[in-house]
Write a structure and sequence with these properties.
Elements lengths: L3 H8 L18 E10 L20 E7 L10 E2 L2 E3 L7 H13 L6 E6 L3 E3 L4 E10 L13 E8 H5 L4 E8 L2 E12 L2 E5 L1 H13 L19
Parallel strand pairs: 1-7
Antiparallel strand pairs: 1-2, 1-4, 2-3, 2-8, 5-7, 6-7, 9-10, 10-11
């Protein structure tokens, strides 16, 4: 049977369709990269079986919660990552550097499976390259700088796929409405809501891999207060 790692490797093969199509691109967008790191390392696996048997209870993905004192996206859950600096050889190097700075992981323990096409974020003028990784060997992760991050955690994928942990967030401004996928994650530091760009990427990856389980797309998940 094809494993989760093999599925992720196939996801990044050249010539694939864009992960998130039809996204507008702002002029002079700044390049950035995020590390979407999967593996079977968590000491607290999910207590449920996913519908797809390739998603084991111990399969997880690395996430962090941004500090609530930050000016940009305070308190939001994100993948490790950031802007590509002049000294970075490529998006992969940038994603690994940022992940080490933010979570303390050892980049040598990460097997980079490949990159996906850059995803534009017009409102913040960024063009973000998702870097798909798999833990080759374990290394501890933690909050490195409390001014930047409030929590670092590995979220069981089976929990994220649980329909009870899924819904949509709704942003209403000026008579307009924006709806997007959302996930709730229970961790030792509390319950976190994954929404916005990070939830959009997770949702797209799960759909592309056919891991998604039927969920209520009308169920609204409250936006975090820190927003």
């Amino acid at each position: 049977m094809v494993t989760a790692r093999q599925q992720l490797s196939a996801l990044v093969r050249p010539g694939g369709a864009p992960l998130v199509p039809d996204m507008p691109t702002a002029e002079s967008s700044r390049r950035a990269a995020v590390l979407i790191l999967f593996g079977a390392l968590d000491h607290v696996p999910s207590d449920r079986d996913a519908t797809d048997t390739r998603v084991g209870r111990d399969l997880d993905v690395l996430l962090l919660a941004r500090a609530t004192t930050l000016r940009a996206h305070p308190g939001e859950v994100a993948f490790p990552g950031g802007r590509i600096d002049p000294g970075d050889a490529d998006p992969t190097a940038a994603a690994l550097r940022e992940a080490q700075e933010e979570t303390g992981l050892d980049p040598d323990g990460v097997e980079v499976l490949g990159t996906l096409d850059p995803v534009p974020l017009a409102f913040s003028r960024h063009l973000v390259t998702p870097v798909i990784g798999w833990w080759r060997s374990a290394s501890p992760v933690r909050v490195v700088d409390e001014a930047e991050s409030a929590a670092v955690f590995r979220a069981p994928v089976a929990d994220l796929l649980d329909p009870a942990h899924r819904g949509v967030t709704v942003v209403r401004r000026g008579g307009q409405e924006w709806r997007g996928p959302a996930f709730t994650v229970d961790t030792v530091s509390g319950t976190h809501t994954v929404w916005g760009f990070t939830a959009m990427l997770l949702d797209a990856v799960f759909d592309r891999l056919a891991w998604t389980e039927p969920w209520d797309r009308q169920r609204e998940v409250p936006l975090p207060v820190a927003r």
